[in-house]
From TrEMBL:
The keyword Transmembrane helix applies. PANTHER family: BASIC AMINO ACID ANTIPORTER YFCC-RELATED (PTHR43652:SF2). This is SLC13 family permease. PROSITE patterns: RCK_C. It is found in: Membrane. GO terms for cellular component: plasma membrane. Keywords: Membrane, Repeat, Transmembrane, Transmembrane helix, Transport. InterPro entries: Cit_transptr-like_dom (IPR004680), DASS-Related_Transporters (IPR051679), RCK_C (IPR006037), RCK_C_sf (IPR036721). Gene3D superfamilies: Regulator of K+ conductance, C-terminal domain (3.30.70.1450).
Length: 618
């Protein structure tokens, strides 16, 4: 077994810098700029890459058939099937039940709470896509924090990070692993040491990473994370919306008597949103436009600082006070529940400007506050453009929250009062997943076939309805894979990857092999922070393999380093979608991720590289 201290013996021959190489590197640069700036949605960028590569076929070598080959690629179809299987498991409520049971023993002890989070999240993420796992567990963890008088800020980043390290336990833990396996198999035609990954190819190293990362999250992370959200925080206080909510009564003779909520909204102005109507003792939360009003009804409205002053002079209404706390705004939880909604990855809200009245009509929930990119928007929320991870403070009837908890547009940040799960289907869903893993692990059939068979089995047994198949898929990931796969082929076939590898060898080839391996790990981790993890493995695995051969090292070790590093986006909220999901509910700032993530990234970089050297040699 190599010690990793062997210096390069034979220099890598300098590849020719052809026009083809320059064109492909130009396309790579374009992709990086678009991914970093997010001028276009990630799936649109992926489609653009296909068009550019095919249009430049004389230099890229990507003909139309190869350009669209990513849609039929084994990695793409496998990821699609695994996303559906994860959706089937989530419909049974199994993940939430696991989270609740693991948290039941934790009580108010923060270390026990973190142990419960890591123990429930990491192993599960080894077999299910971690994006829905985190989405399902955010409300569970938030409730655990509230019951245990712990700040949610202490627990939510560890939830996201635990899911990321757990994804390295098996081949199907993340879409990145599946894509890396496909690239490794393709490069195996050139490098004998490379091959398609088996189900448990790197599980032994994954266990080490999970144990080390878990210990860090349990014993260190809570010291580094500030209490951005106080324990059991009052939402009105936390979102600072008390000054923007007012009660106005419909006075005798008012033109609003006999009118509707829609008429009131039009009369009071576009900046004023009616979030409740109190009729005698009945309270209508998030009322529809057609709701009729009577004399003496009280309208609870949400507006901005300037518009709230105009209510004193508004015709037909009289200000009668303001709610000072959650309890005053929602005296009975059966009438309206205050909670947070997180804009999800595939939400129709992404890129839309917030229109509270339209939101109320479409989703049945009244918007009271907004956190955008982690920053509190206390005053004027109308017209704010929404993005993934933005968090809306809303009030909605319990039935509406039950419906929203099953929606793909938002993640409800507290457990709905009456969740509807197919709990009776949980044993069937688990049996199907075990079958999928077993068939692939025993190499009876490839993971692609076993995963598709599992999808069919979930529909036949009623775990999933046929129309739910499409809702379970994160289509932006599918389009991203389809777009970056031909880019990877162009890198390999034109010699651009070999040229980049030569530059690496020229600058770092004199270093010990183990250090070069560590540098690839670090470089991948940093690139993953600003572009997709799937894009980073497509760009770096061919370069890493060629560089390894150039310095006389084991290319499989370098492929492993890139694969593991691509799933460690710990330095900021934008590198991994699960980080965005906890951004708003935790009240985090960008620096909070770096504060707790940088030491973890450094620790795991050392552990992983040493582990690779131990298990596979370098």
């Amino acid at each position: 077994m190599s010690t990793g201290l062997v210096l390069a013996q034979e220099p890598l021959a300098q590849p020719e810098l052809t026009t083809d190489v320059l064109v492909v590197l130009g396309v790579v640069l374009l992709a990086l700029v678009l991914f970093v700036t997010e001028r276009l949605p990630i799936d649109v960028t992926a489609l653009l890459l296909i068009v550019v590569l095919v249009v430049l076929e004389p230099w890229t070598g990507i003909d139309p058939a190869t350009g669209i080959s990513g849609f039929a690629n084994e990695a793409t179809i496998t990821v699609l099937a695994m996303l559906i299987l994860s959706g089937g498991i989530s419909r049974t409520g199994l993940v939430q039940e696991l989270g609740r049971r693991m948290a039941a023993f934790a009580g108010g002890n923060i270390r026990k709470q973190l142990v419960a989070i890591v123990a429930a999240t990491s192993p599960t993420s080894g077999f299910l896509n971690n994006t829905p796992i985190v989405a399902l567990l955010v409300p569970v963890v938030t409730d655990v924090a509230n019951r245990g008088n712990t700040s949610p800020s202490k627990l939510l980043i560890p939830l996201s990070y635990a899911s990321q390290v757990g994804g390295m336990l098996t081949l199907i833990g993340t879409s990145t692993n599946i894509l890396a396996s496909d690239i490794s198999a393709r490069l195996g035609e050139e490098y004998a040491e490379l091959h398609r990954f088996s189900m448990f190819e790197f599980t032994q190293l994954g266990i080490v990473v999970v144990l080390v990362g878990g210990l860090y999250l349990v014993f260190v992370s809570h010291y580094l994370l500030p209490e951005r959200v106080p324990p059991r925080a009052d939402y009105l206080e936390e979102y600072e919306v008390g000054d923007y909510i007012a009660d106005v009564a419909i006075v005798p003779g008012s033109p609003l008597v006999g009118a509707t909520v829609g008429d009131a909204s039009d009369s009071l102005g576009p900046e004023i949103d009616v979030v409740q109507v109190v009729h005698h003792r009945d309270r209508s939360v998030a009322p529809r436009r057609e709701t009729h009003l009577e004399e003496g009804d009280v309208l609870v409205v949400r507006t901005d600082r300037d518009a709230i002053r105009t209510l004193e002079d508004a015709a037909g209404v009289e200000p009668v006070g303001r709610p000072e706390s959650d309890a005053e705004l929602s005296p009975e939880s059966s009438e309206g529940v205050l909670t947070e909604l997180i804009v999800s990855l595939d939400s129709q809200l992404v890129g839309e400007r917030l229109d509270p009245e339209r939101f109320r009509e479409e989703f049945g929930a009244a918007v009271l506050g907004l956190r955008s990119h982690g920053e509190l928007v206390a005053d004027r929320i109308v017209g704010k453009r929404l993005d993934v991870g933005d968090t809306l403070l809303v009030q909605a009837p319990p039935d509406t929250l039950d419906r929203l908890s099953r929606s793909d547009d938002v993640i409800v940040a507290r457990e709905p009062p009456r969740p509807e799960y197919r709990a009776d289907k949980a044993p069937i869903a688990v049996a199907i997943m075990i079958g999928v893993v077993a068939v692939a692990a025993l190499e009876i059939y490839p993971i692609l076939i076993s995963a598709i068979a599992g999808v069919v089995a979930m529909v036949v047994t009623g775990v999933l309805d046929p129309n739910e198949l499409y809702d379970a898929v994160e289509w932006d990931i599918i389009f991203l894979l389809a777009g970056v796969i031909p880019l990877g082929i162009a890198l390999e076939q034109t010699g651009a990857a070999a040229y980049l590898a030569f530059l690496v060898v020229q600058t770092a080839g004199f270093l010990p092999t183990l250090l070069v391996l560590w540098l690839f790990y670090v470089a991948t981790g940093l690139i993953t922070e600003v572009i997709s993890n799937n894009a980073s493995v497509v760009l770096l695995i061919p370069v890493a393999a060629a560089a390894a051969v150039g310095i006389g090292a084991n290319p499989f070790a370098f492929v492993m380093a890139v694969t593991f590093a691509a799933s460690t986006a710990f330095l900021g909220p934008i590198g991994y979608q699960t980080n965005l999901f906890v951004y708003g509910p935790g009240g985090y700032r960008f620096s909070d991720y770096f504060r707790v993530g940088a030491p973890l990234q450094l620790l795991l970089s050392i552990v992983t590289v040493l582990g690779i050297a131990f298990f596979w040699g370098v």
